[in-house]
Amino acid sequence: MIKTLVPRRENQYSAFPTFAVHRDQLFVFFRQGVKGRWGTHGHGGRVKRLQFDLDTFVVACDDPEREEIGSLAVESHVHGEKGRNEMDAIVSDLGDGLFCLATRNFDREKRMRCFVGFSHDLNFRERIEIAVPGVHWFAFYGKALRVGDDLVFPAYGGLDGKDHMQALLISVPVERRHDPTAWGLRSAIPNGSRDRELNESSLVRAGDRFHLFSRAHRQPFALWHATSTDLDRWSEPRVIIRDAHAPMAIHWRDRVCVSYRHLYRGTESEEQAASAAPSAATCLEWPFDDRPIVTIESFPGSIYDGGYSDLGPVRDRLLLVYYQGNAQGEPYLRCWLQEPDSLL
Asked: Which tens digit of pLDDT belongs to each residue from 160-217?
C-alpha cells in the first residue's frame, strides 16, 4: 500500500527522499524548500529528517485505514540556513556501523558546494566540503559503497579541460574520510562527447562485477548501463532503459533492481505542465530479468516535480520512498512497502 510521509502543502516543495535503517529505527532524509520561480525545485531548501520506530512504521504501512503516517515520526532539521538553498541529500549505509550523508547547496547565483558527513548513529552534526582535483564541478548522486579500504561515491560533473558532462566515481580511503585533501577522482565513465553526456548515476555491486546506471543528460532521455570488475576500466555505456531519469539501483535477493522516473512525455510546455494528464511515474524494474515493470504511481504536471526515489530492504520486504508531483508544482513524499513474493 502507498502511504504519505510528508503531505502536500501550499507553496511547499518536498523532494528527494532517501533512507537508512539503524537498529530498530528507520531514518528518512529529504529536502524541503519553497515553491518558486527561480531554481528547478524552488528555493530556500533545507535538509530534514524523519525518525520512525521501525515496528510502528511497518504496522502503519500495513494498516488499510491509515494513509498519512509521517505524523508517527520525529522530525528534525539537519542542514540549511536562511539565505541558502540546500538542493538534495543521499544517505548511504557503508557497513560496520558507518553511515554517510552527501549533500549540496545551490544558490541563486548558481554557486554549488558539495559536502559529506559521517555518523555511526545517523545524527549528522558536521560535514566537510569536498573538492576533487581535476574536476571543476560535480554533484553527488547514488549510494556510496565501501570497496576494500576505500569509500566510492557515484557522481556526475565536468573534468578540467573537458566541455561535456560525465559520470564520475569519487573515492577516499575510509580511514582518511574526514580529510578534504584525501578525496580524489577514481574514474570517469567514457561517454564520449556533448552528444552523449551522462548525468545522475547509481553504482551497485553484484558478485564480481560493478554496474553503473546513468541518466542521459539530453534528449532522448534514457538510462545507460556500463560494467566494470575493478572500478577503473569500464565497458562502453549502452542504453538499457528508455524514457527515464534518476536511477537508483540495489542488489536484492540475488538480483539487481532499479527504481527511476519513467517519462510519458520527454518535453513539456507550460500548458502540458499544468495538464491533469499523467506526465511521468515512479517505476521499479529488474533490468536483467524477464519481469514486468512495476509502476508505483504516476503524476501530472512538470516531469521534474516527482519520481526520484530510494529503495532498499526493510524487515525482508522492499521499501521504496519517492516524491510525488502534481499540476500545482507542490510535490510531497510517499512510500511503498512490498512483500518480496509479490515481486519476485
From this structure: 998 889 999 999 999 999 999 999 999 999 876 677 899 999 999 999 999 999 999 9
Please state the separation of Cα 178 from the chain's center in Å: 23
φ and ψ at 338, to 5 degrees? -130, 145
pLDDT digits (tens, 9 = 90+) for 325-336: 999 999 999 999
Distances (CA, A) of 275 to 169, 196, 221, 269: 38, 31, 21, 10
Q: Which residues make Cβ contacts (< 8 Å) with residue 2, sequence separation at least 6? A: 296, 297, 334, 335, 336
Closest CA to 210 of 159, 261, 145, 284: 145
Confidence at residue 125, expressed as pLDDT on a 0 to 100 scale: 93
The x, y and z cell numbers of residue 21, run together, are 535503517
Output the DSSP codes for 207-272.
Answer: TTEEEEEEEESSSSPEEEEEEESSSSS-PPPEEEEESEEEEEEEEETTEEEEEEEEES-S---HHH
The rounded Cα 111 to chain-centroid distance in angstroms is: 21
124-to-89, 101, 115 alpha-carbon distances in Å: 12, 7, 11
Q: What is the pLDDT of residue 6?
A: 98
Reported pTM? 0.96
Q: How far apart are the first and last CA of the chain?
A: 17
- Residue numbers of the chain with a pLDDT score lower than 70: 37-39, 192-193, 266-274
Distance in angstroms (rounded) separating the CA atoms of residues 230 and 281: 34
Distance from C-alpha of 246 to C-alpha of 165, rounded to nearest angstrom? 16
- 128: its cell numbers: 566537510
Backbone angles phi, psi at 295, to 5 degrees: -90, 115
**What is the DSSP secondary-structure string of 138-192?**
EEE-S--EEETTEEEEEEEEEETT--SEEEEEEEEEGGGTT-GGG-EEEEE----
Q: What digits encode the pLDDT tens for the residues 274-301?
A: 677 899 999 999 999 999 999 999 999 9
